[in-house]
Amino acid sequence: MTLDVLHTGTALQKARVACVFLHGRGQSPEAMLDHVVQHLPGDVAWILPRAKGGSWYAARAIDPLTDTTRTELAASLTGLAAVMTDVRSQTFRPVVLAGFSQGACLSLEHTFTGASPADAVLAFTGCRVGTTADQRPAALLRELPVYLSGADADPWIPVAAFAEAAAELALAGASLRSDIFPCRAHEVSPAERAMLATVLAALAEDRPVTMEAPR
Predict the structure, then answer these.
(1) SS3 17
(2) Which residue from 57, 75, 107, 204 puts its CA 20 to 30 A from 81's CA?
């Protein structure tokens, strides 16, 4: 699958850091511009892929994997890997992979494939796709900085699924920070945007990614 991509911010060849940001189910790159990108400062090249039909796969992330879901997920992962490879071919600067909700889940699945890895991953309201009983990739790059967030009563990503993803990331050797936000709506909150800004700034300045932004 070849993904349609919206480019904004600083030109990729001139930016000090790039961010590939994946929208959620029923959303769009334009929605991420409104809810995330416009709130963040800095010299960043933004690459915002668009899911065909507004979703990366039809099932809920927490449903057991079916043949249909595996096919849809594989197509989206192939498209995302192509985007990451293309970005890497155009810049020697760090590349961040981030996403919200279904986009966060896809970013985690890509990260666990070990293909075209990012320099840091931020999954806002995310979990693994499928269940622990499903056969899923587990080739995550050790010591990769990963931020995982969720809410105590999110309608799409239950706390149990969030916790399972956090455990898998930790066991795979990720440099992980995870936050649960009580009573937070299904959205990217100011604290989560601040975390993304902190990670982008660290990589742009060739500093370690410590993820010390306040909640």
Answers:
(1) strand
(2) 204
Q: Is 183 exposed, middle or buried (0-12, 13-18, 19+ CB in 10 A)?
A: exposed
Q: How far apart are CA 205 and CA 152, in angstroms?
A: 34
Cβ pair 202, 119 in contact under 8 A:
no
110 belongs to a structural domain: yes
| C-alpha span between 132 and 63 (Å, rounded) | 11
Distance CA 188, CA 104 (A): 11
Q: Indicate whether 210 belongs to any domain.
A: no
- pTM beyond 0.85: the answer is yes
**How far does Cα 115 stand from its chain's mean position?**
14
Q: For residue 134, how many C-alpha atoms fall within 13 Å in the half-sphere facing its CB?
A: 16
Return the H-helix or E-strand segment holding 168. helix 159-171
The CATH number for 57's domain is 3.40.50.1820
Which residue, among 45, 53, 70, has the nearest Cα to 3 in the 3D structure?
53
pLDDT in tens, 96-127: 999 999 999 999 999 999 999 999 999 999 99
Encode pLDDT of 50-93 as tens digits: 999 999 999 999 999 999 999 999 999 999 999 999 999 999 99
Strands 145-151 and 120-124: parallel
Q: Which residues pair with 99 in a beta bridge?
A: 22, 123
Number of C-beta neighbours around residue 156 at 10 A? 20
Indicate the number of domains in the chain. 1
Query: How would you classify the pairing of strands 44-50 and 4-9?
Result: antiparallel
